[in-house]
Structures are given as structure tokens and as C-alpha cells.
Amino acid sequence: DVEKFFIKKGLKSIVEMSKGRPYSGNKMLVVETFRPNLNDLYNLYQYVFLNKRTTICEFGSGWSSLIFSLALYDLKNKYFKDVKDLRANNPYELFIVDDVKYFLNISKNRIEKFNSLLNIKNPTKINYTRTDVEMTLFNGRICNAYKKLPLCNPDFIYLDGPNQYKIKKKING
């Protein structure tokens, strides 16, 4: 059923890519992307669509970025008239924050390619932010903090980053 969903959406190539060689993610130097996980992507799409989310902020970029842009596009086409009266500055916008420019560019190119492939006119507005991540303290506890964040008021936040090997600064060595 999940594969049929993606094929019906015109994303048969994602189904084929999902069957590729699995990627081992615990490496210091990463130059390849994860293969798409259809169950995760399907659940993300359904969560956003069924809960009628209008603005998404995603930390980290990847296959989820494409799915979020498609879900927001479908929601905009279905509910735009209902949402235009809400006090929302960024209805049907996706904000992507990533600490690695290489992966941000892959996501951007992937989304543009699929928008073109699916013949999408007036695609989802996407705001890309590349920023460093630093180790810091919050209430006396070690945490990671993005140096720069986009100005938005999302009703859905997806945390899929940062790259654990690219965090700057140290706390207690």
C-alpha cells in the first residue's frame, strides 16, 4: 500500500531507490545520502497532511524535505481558501536548516528535479538556511545550538540533524 501511494503520486523512482543498498550512517566522512525509507516518508506525509500543518521547520535535510514540500503543496491546493484568513505569516512554506551545504544542495536539487518531473506549477515556497552548530550549555546542560535560525512560526518542527561530527566548540574537552 505504501509503494502504491508513492507510485500514485508520480514518485515511482523513489520506490525503486528505496530498494538500493542500505547505508551505514555512523561514519565521520559521509559523501552518500541515505536511501529513502518509504514507511518513514509515508508517515511524515500523512502526519502533515492529516493534521493540516501549514508551516514546517526542518532541521537537517534529505528525502523528508521533498515529502514535506509535496505535502504542503497538496494542502495548499486543497485548503488555501480556508487558511488565507488565519494570522499566519508563512502559510504553506517549508524552512530547511542544515549545517552541511553539500546535503542542503542535494535536497534543493532533488526538490527542483521532482517539481519539474511532476510538472508542479507554483511549488511550495522553500527557505534554505545553512548555519554552523555549536556545542554550548543550556541550564547547565550540554546541548547543541544552531547559530542562525529562520524567522518563522512553524506548526510542525522536524528534527533530523545536525551532523554529529560537524558540531563546533567543546565543553569540558
Give a structural overview:
The protein is an alpha/beta fold and 173 residues long. It is 37% helix and 19% strand. It has five helices and six strands. Strand 4 and strand 5 (141-146) form a beta hairpin. Helix 3 runs parallel beside helix 4 (63-83) and helix 4 crosses helix 5. The chain is globular.
Rg, Cα atoms, Å: 17 Å
Could you state the order of secondary-structure elements as H and E? HHHEHEHEEEE
Main beta-sheet annotation? 4 strands, parallel
Low-confidence stretches: none
Instruction: Name the strands of the widest sheet in spatial order.
Output: 3-2-1-6
The total count of strands amounts to 6
Give the helix level as a range of percent: 25-40%
The averaged pLDDT comes out at 89
Taken from the alpha-carbon principal axes, the silhouette is globular
Amount of beta strand: 15-25%
Instruction: Give the terminus-to-terminus CA distance.
Output: 49 Å
Number of distinct helices: 5
Core attributes:
alpha/beta, 4-stranded parallel β-sheet, two-stranded antiparallel ribbon, 173 residues, single chain, 19% strand, 5 helices
Write a compact overview of the structure shown.
With 173 residues, this protein is α/β, with parallel strands linked by helices.
List the helices and strands and how they pair.
Elements: H1 2-8, H2 12-17, H3 38-50, E1 55-59, H4 63-83, E2 93-98, H5 101-117, E3 125-130, E4 133-138, E5 141-146, E6 156-159
Parallel strand pairs: 1-2, 1-6, 2-3
Antiparallel strand pairs: 4-5
Helix pairs in contact: 3-4, 4-5
